[in-house]
Amino acid sequence: MIELRSLTKRFPGTLAIDDINLSISAGEFITLLGPSGCGKTTILRCISGFETPDSGTILLDGVDVTHVPPYRRDVNQVFQSYALFPHLNVAENIAFGLRMKRIARSERTARVAAAIELVALCGLEKRKPAQLSGGQMQRVALARAIVNRPKVLLLDEPLAALDAKLRRAMQIELKALQRQLGMTFVFVTHDQEEALILSDRIAVMNAGRIEQVGDVADVYHRPRTSFVASFIGQTNLIPVTVIGDHARQMRVRSDAGFEFQANLDFLGNDRQTVMIRPERIRIGATGLSPNTFTARVIDRIFRGETSQLIVRTECGQQLQIVSSESSLTSAPGTEVTCHFDPADVVLVG
User: Fold this and answer.
1) Can you name the residues that pair with 22 across neighbouring β-strands?
2) CA torsion 171→177→180→183, rounded to 10°?
């Protein structure tokens, strides 16, 4: 549906996007994830036509639209600010694009009614934006975009202004809406949890470049770089030196002197960085794991159903552990025995 080829965009003093290549399938929900200023919104604006790249090509359904104006591209965009007309009611806001396209009144009325039902706004047709909640305004913005039946819907942090509870509810509704419509969604966010909940695939961006593209499980469990590993989820990133190997069992040592085994085919050279997700480290001894160690709890952070422990091993290596609240009863100062599987050690760039 969308193909970006060698896309580059510069602003004065800034290389916003740097030689980006990305293919997006029809009906896919893909998220551009990254910190502020990494270029994700600039990519969205290039796809929509609000920005023209300095070089590269944008294909929409096989057609080169790189220099086609926004109103001639079969895409719609939903903004963080909603961008509703304050003097128009809900139905009039949703119908605005159809009126600009001179869609017949009967068809316009039918399509607006269908969109209102789809986003659960029935009974609010006559209200003005000032009479709506944040979630209701977001639904109006979505309905206004989908009523035009675009091939692609672009969403620029559309849930950022909502409170946490409403945001979680809207995430579920948005994903259900995308599945129901079968439309291609390109979503921009800096919220890693939101990206994991919503996406079929995630493109993790950093400093104008895409560091990794993959499905949510692949990006989370097999990050290719230290940046991706640290940006998505909590993690233990440990620089290590190889001190021995046998078959696929590597013996490594951290700078603090923490030694453990890793199921890695080949580390490339003696000095590498590995990742262990906090939820893969478990409290309690086991005779099955070669990576069993003693540590002292430094801090405990309550997170509802889970808790996070910060522990320090006997050699001084600090680690994070996340587990269910019921399984963690250790107060700061307590000594605990921990273990993790060599297969849970992941090599990152």
Assistant:
1) 4
2) -100
Residue 193 DSSP one-character state: H
CA separation for the pair 210, 63 (Å, rounded):
23
Give the Cα separation of 96 and 103 in Å (integer): 10
- DSSP per-residue string spanning 289-315: -SEEEEEEEEEEEEETTEEEEEEEETT
Instruction: Give the SS3 label for residue 222.
Output: coil
- The per-residue pLDDT for range 201-254, each reduced to its tens digit, is 999 999 999 999 999 999 999 999 999 999 998 899 999 988 887 766 888 899
DSSP class of residue 12?
A: T
Helix (H, G, I), strand (E, B) or coil at 262: strand
Contact indicator for 46, 54 with CB cutoff of 8 Å: no
Instruction: Round to whole Å and give the CA distance between 222 and 213.
Output: 11
46 compared with 177, residue with greater pLDDT: 46
Q: Where are the alpha helices (DSSP H) in 120-266?
A: 134-146, 164-181, 192-198, 216-221, 226-231
Backbone angles phi, psi at 309, to 5 degrees: -105, 140
Alpha helices in 15-66 (DSSP H): 40-48
Residue 179 phi/psi, 5-degree rounding, is: -65, -40
Residue type, 62: G
